Amino acid sequence: MSFTKLDELGRKLEALEHAQAMLGVDEAVQMPSGGGEKRAEAMATLAGMYHEMAAAPHVAELIADAESEALDEMRQAALRELRRTYTNLTCLSSDFVRRQVAARIRSEQLWRELRPTGNWKDFLPAFEGVVATLREEAQLRSDALGLAPYDAMIEQYDPGSRTAEITPVFAELKSFLKNFIPRAIEAQQKKPPAKSFNAPFPVEKQKALGQAIMKALGFDFEHGRLDVSHHPFCGGVPTDVRMTTRYNENEFLSALMGIVHETGHGLYEQGLPKQWAHWPLGRARGMAMHESQSLFVEKQICRNPAFWEWAMPVVSEHLGADAIAGWNLEDVLAHVHKIKPGLIRVDADEATYPLHVILRYELEQDLVTGKLAPRDVPEAWDAKMREYLGLSTIDNPRDGPMQDVHWPSGAIGYFPSYTLGALMAAQQWAAIEKTNPNITHDMRRGDFSSLNKWRHGNIWSKASTLSTPELLKQATGEPLNTRYFTEHLQRRYL
Fold it and tell me: Please, what sign has the CA dihedral across residues 312, 316, 321, 322?
């Protein structure tokens, strides 16, 4: 009886989540600037309503009663995940959630307005408001969960991940990349220079190309679509996945790689078990696993030479015969395998990308603890950028701390997931290669079905039935490690 009542509650909460998700997508993609204030109020109100329903005291009683009922294994797992999410929800009051959501939305709206000009001075007050609520949230969660404040924030994005395990892995990666990147650049310089793009590439043609690639990769357009936003993202709900990218008419690869990255997220969402969609059990298993799916598509599939053997004719079909006229496979690889330290994380190659993430991981820890004040972020960012990538952003906040939507929207604790996901993606690819030696041959034909079948069976359909470490070990046969990622880089670039 109690389980049935929780099931009914889950459907009501799912409806509220659906509304919040779609309002969020519309706010980022379609909403006129004048709608911002009322949209913030509406989304804050919905967030408060959701929190009041999901964190109500009687829910704890229902969970306790249901745990004593005779339930099958899946329902028992559903209750365990619900209890975990309930504990995390009840860390915060509804009034705090409303106040925080309003601060985050206003900050994100201001960021969209000011990022193009890099106006850090006018953005700073809103950012300070977000950081203040984040510190408050981190302490509330820390007290309730018995975790360090930053670990308590990571828990919201990647349950079970802790700085004690992440920091040594990132230190090992930093050490490896410090030696690897110069060697890879040296090897790259011995090859012929990359050919120039035959620009311009009209946005509509780029969009058609992106949609063709998405469809081939398995994205279901009856349950999703592609739009434009300031920052690429995957949002919406599993039955209506909303993806975005941003276009540059001078070249097509940045938009395409943004599209295929978000497609990885979209495929995961579309592959989750629909019968458990209204329970926490039916959701994706944390953002590290989510990022492993997006990076699997972007890095393991779409930067693979076999993929481009199939994709080059598709590019010509949609962008025109002269788009890459006279190019061979090596000409394309000169662009998609190019290692060049740059300012923008989302445009970074897979060798320098982890350094972008580690920079943010280190800075946001200091933001949460109060060691770093929001006003000092540009200088701290510049110092690490110069140390890790040899570049400066001191006079360019647009391409420094204002480049990502995460901090303006309050998503602190998210960034580690990107590099943890890259490690997981490489490990999953290695596991697939062991079971299916024909993967490369299939990709040359534009056939990605076996890749999707493996990921559906081992990752997507499992949703949140297991912890992240358990899920990865069950899928690949071993716990997370750096071996496959570093071997992958050396094989591809050396």
Answer: negative
Q: For the ranges 83-97, 306-320, 440-454, which has the lowest average pLDDT?
A: 83-97
Question: Which ranges in 219-301 belong to alpha helices (H)?
Answer: 253-270, 286-295
In terms of residues, how long is the chain?
494
Nearest by Cα to 86 from 112, 108, 58: 58
* b/e per residue 207-242 (b: at least 16 CB within 10 A): bebbbebbebbbbeeeebbbbebbbbbbbbbbebbb
How many angstroms separate the CA atoms of 274 and 290, rounded? 17
Collapse the DSSP code of 40 into the 3-class scheme (helix H, G, I; strand E, B; otherwise coil) and give the result.
Answer: helix
- Secondary structure of residue 64 in the 3-state scheme: helix
Domain extents for the chain? 2-157
Find, among 68, 71, 155, 159, the residue nearest to 466 by Cα: 159
Catalytically annotated residue among 27, 108, 262, 350: 262
Instruction: Find out whether 90 and 55 touch, Cβ atoms under 8 Å.
Output: yes
pLDDT tens for each residue of 481-493:
899 999 999 999 9
Where on the phi/psi map is residue 436: left (φ > 0), alpha (ψ -120 to 50), or beta? beta
Q: Is 309 a catalytic residue?
A: no
455: which residues sit within 8 A by CB, 6+ positions away?
267, 268, 271, 293, 296, 428
- What is the Cα gyration radius of the chain? 22
Q: Is 477 left (phi over 0), alpha (psi -120 to 50) or beta?
A: left
